[in-house]
UniProtKB/TrEMBL annotation:
Coiled coil: none annotated. GO terms for cellular component: nucleoid. This is Single-stranded DNA-binding protein. Residues 143-153 have a biased composition (Basic residues). It comes from Photorhabdus stackebrandtii. Residues 113-137, 160-171 have a biased composition (Polar residues). Keywords: DNA-binding. One of its GO terms (biological process) is DNA replication.
Length: 171
């Protein structure tokens, strides 16, 4: 039996810009997100605290795109689950261009960890399972929710969103 592999990406990060929802010819909603994650460590030689920020391209489709566009704003913390995909196209000069993105469609999940309102909300392609502190939006079969999130501390990365230092190339 041939193995097919696993293509699953899970990210928790902050939005680098306000979102814009657009609609493709078939009427489906699409929203592109610039999502920043960061890693912190202490430099062994200087003892100085360092931080590396990594920017990710995330594309939301359908109801997830509409809800994200309505409730999320620059700087909000978001959890996303999707699949990694690389697109290829030719620019106006005929040069091949590539973009690697996390695709979050009806099989994916997006959870607002801040913003929108004060309670976190999970949005996915799943059948809604009402819970006292969460509101679910979904369209796929019910699955069990795992664990609870922890409150993240504010870092340079989250402050960076408020100052507007977000890469804009291709987002």
């Amino acid at each position: 039996m041939a193995e097919r592999g696993v293509n699953k990406v899970i990210l928790v990060g902050n939005l680098g810009q306000d979102l814009k929802v657009r609609y493709i010819p078939n009427g489906g909603a699409v929203t592109n997100i610039a999502l920043a994650t960061s890693k912190m460590w202490r430099d062994k030689q200087s003892g100085e605290q360092k931080e590396k920020i990594e920017w990710h391209r995330v594309v939301l489709f359908g109801k997830l795109a509409e809800v994200a566009g309505k409730y999320l704003r620059k700087g909000d913390k978001v959890y996303v689950e999707g699949q990694l995909q690389t697109r290829k196209w030719q620019d106006n000069n005929g040069i091949d261009r590539y973009a690697t993105e996390i695709i979050v469609n009806a099989k994916g999940t997006m959870q607002m960890l801040s913003g929108g309102n004060q309670n976190s909300r999970q949005l996915s392609g799943e059948t809604p399972t009402p819970q006292p502190t969460q509101q679910l939006v979904s369209t796929k079969p019910e699955t069990k929710k795992k664990g609870k999130g922890r409150k993240a501390k504010t870092t340079t990365a989250s402050r960076q969103f408020q100052t507007g230092t977000v890469p804009t190339d291709g987002f």
